[in-house]
Amino acid sequence: MPTIYGYIRVSTRAQKDERQWLSLRQAGVEDQHIFVDKATGKHFNRPAYRRMLCRLRPGDLLVVQSIDRLGRNYEEMLRQWRLLVEEKQVDVQVLDMPLLDTRRRKSATTALMADMLLRLLSYMAQAEREAIRSRQAQGIAAAKARGVRFGRPRLPVPEGFKGLKAQWEEGKISSRQAAQQLHISHQTFLRWAKEK
Prior knowledge:
With about 200 residues, the chain is an alpha/beta fold. It has seven helices and four strands; from the N terminus they run E-H-E-H-E-H-E-H-H-H-H. The protein starts with a strand and ends with a helix.
């Protein structure tokens, strides 16, 4: 008898997955058959997804909330769709897009419409990801132009730095010895010596 599986993916560990759990349960997926990955969709290194793939058998049903749970770029979504539907011969139900339910592909027209919709949705997910990346880069550039600093705050230069720098320049101590006395890394000492 075919088994109904569910797959949940959230982009970050902080993101909530309750909505997806609720949707899958309402679709008849039992908790023990739900696989969850909490990682970015950018790369397809998802351990729960890979475990689920090993379990899927021909005739099983995989339920996902939306098509972008399979991947975040056009090629990856299509590749996973083909792997599931054509190679593994698994039915796929996309809850927020009933037309993509492979169990309903009885006619050539329905199959054609579903294939076109899948390609369009996959493309849109990738375009959205690229737009987010572009907006993020623009935001970072604008913040830098306003003088916003990113990264760890600079360490204050300790009082004894100038004297130790002079000793180092005279060859009396090494950069490592000077850094050790200042309780900083020798790379930081060398950078400060170069800058000041």
